[in-house]
Amino acid sequence: MRYFIGIWIFLIIAVVSLLGFRGSKSKDQPLYVFPDMDWQAKYLPQGENKFFADGRNDRPMVPGTAGRGYGNQLASVFSADYTDPVSENPPLYSGKDDEGEWMRGFPVEVNDEFMLLGQQKYDIFCAVCHGASGDGNGVVKQYEGATLIASLLQERLMAMPEGEIFNTITHGKLNMGAYGMKLRPDERWAVVAYVRALQLASSASVDDVPEQFKSELGL
Ligand code: HEC
Prior knowledge:
219 residues, mainly alpha, Cytochrome Bc1 Complex, Chain D, domain 2, 10 helices, binds heme C
């Protein structure tokens, strides 16, 4: 019986001391049985640093530093014959012309293959919302809360420079998400070309049909 009471009291103390203080706050450092690598000498981003006069860990770039390529292309960026694709054709990436205005026209050759690429990407990425014909009646429209999808066939967007539409695809606009991470620059321009084709198709008259196709269509 004496042992029993002793063990009983010991168990109560053990349970209370192990579980009873769970959740309570303490300023003392917890007992670390396995410290692993929780403490190590390192410089944290935006941390304080007494070595430098400005007291910051992060060092400013050396004046005159020029960006070159992307971090994930180390081999090509440091090769002697590296050329920066952006500087070779800036509007292809920015949608802006030499004067910094939204580009009108296309920074690449528009041909059949390019239009087919645009159609394919439009059908994959845009048609769910803007509709296969660009009228803004994609399948998403059936669902509540998605009633404000723009029609791409409105006059304002027909008059909008190609570069600005490219920019909308790259960065998104208001409720629309960005597609710059999902489509390459040339693919985005191809989509712009296809949007132009949809706009033309919605507003064209019989006179716009080339002669060679008129008889084929029985016009
Ligand atoms: C998830 C739905 C959705 C998808 C997918 C989508 N859009 Fe949009 N888009 C919108 C909505 C919503 C608006 C209207 C933005 C607003 O006014 O809030 C819009 C607006 C636009 C505009 C007009 C912007 C302006 O200046 O008013 C263009 C151009 C456009 N989208 C093109 C595209 C193209 C090209 C694609 C495919 C790469 C695409 N969108 C994919 C929802 C979508």
